[in-house]
Structures are given as C-alpha cells and as structure tokens.
Amino acid sequence: MIKRRSEPGKGLWALPGGFVNANTDKSVEDAAIRELREETRIKVPAPVLRGNIKDRKVFDDPYRSSRGRTITHAFLIHLPPDLELPKVKGSDDAEKAKWVPLYEVKRSFMFEDHYDIIESMVSL
C-alpha cells in the first residue's frame, strides 16, 4: 500500500495507482504496472508482474471518487510463493509504501473506496 503524498486524501493509505498515459501506455494493464513500479519502486520486472495477474475488476460507481467520475481497473497480482517480498519505497505520488497484512487493513485509514476494492478482490 502507499500513503498518499497529496490531496485529495493526503496521509491516507491507498492502493498504488494513477491514470493512463495516452502517450506511453498501450493498455490499462500497462498503466497499472507502470504506476505500481513508479509509486513503490518495486524491483519485480514488469513481465513477472504481468505474468502473475490473477484477477482484474472494474470499479465504476459514478460517486466513488471526490475527484469526479473516475473508473478504476484493479489488478490482483500473486507474486510467486518462493519469492521473498521485495522491498518497496514510496516514490512519485506516494509518501510511503509498505506491505500490509490483510488483517491490518482498516477502512478508517483508507482513501475513498480502496478498502472496498481490496475486500472485493481478496474477500476480507
């Protein structure tokens, strides 16, 4: 997870993410992997991340974001079980980044509907 550096939601915990760059991203999946790597500095190669996507869902409630109509494409990535959790470090839009066990995820510390996204993707 990342701790948001700026408003909206400055200081709240969120899933790493951002927006599609029309000039460089060929797909929403490309944008998701790019944003994950930019915000967390995770050293897992993009092809490994891409190859371990286990699920994806769209979150499109018109009132889900204070920023206006925002459609999120969430990706669930399972890293190989023999891989030690790689180091992460906040970068770009993230003040901090860290691995958070699911049992520690609390709605009250989360940005907008990110708790609901996690709950939907992994069945908390």
Description:
This protein has three helices and five strands. It is of the alpha+beta class. The strands form two sheets. It has a three-stranded antiparallel beta sheet, with no helix packed on it. A two-stranded antiparallel sheet has the order 3-4. The protein is globular, with a radius of gyration of 14 Å. The protein starts with a strand and ends with a helix.
Whole-number radius of gyration? 14 Å
Q: Please describe the biggest sheet, giving its number of strands, its sense, and whether it closes into a barrel.
A: 3 strands, antiparallel
Output the helix-strand order.
EEHHEEEH
Write down the overall geometry: globular
The count of strands amounts to 5
Measure the end-to-end span: 16 Å
Total DSSP helices: 3
Give the helix/strand class.
alpha+beta
Low-confidence stretches: none
Strand content: 15-25%
Helix content: 10-25%
Average pLDDT confidence is 94
**Assembly state (oligomeric):** single chain
Order of strands side by side in the largest beta sheet? 2-1-5
Task: Kindly summarize this structure in a few lines.
With 124 residues, this protein is an alpha+beta fold.
List keywords for this structure.
124 residues; alpha+beta
How would the blueprint of this fold be written?
Elements: E1 2-4, E2 13-14, H1 28-40, H2 46-51, E3 53-59, E4 72-77, E5 94-97, H3 114-122
Antiparallel strand pairs: 1-2, 1-5, 3-4
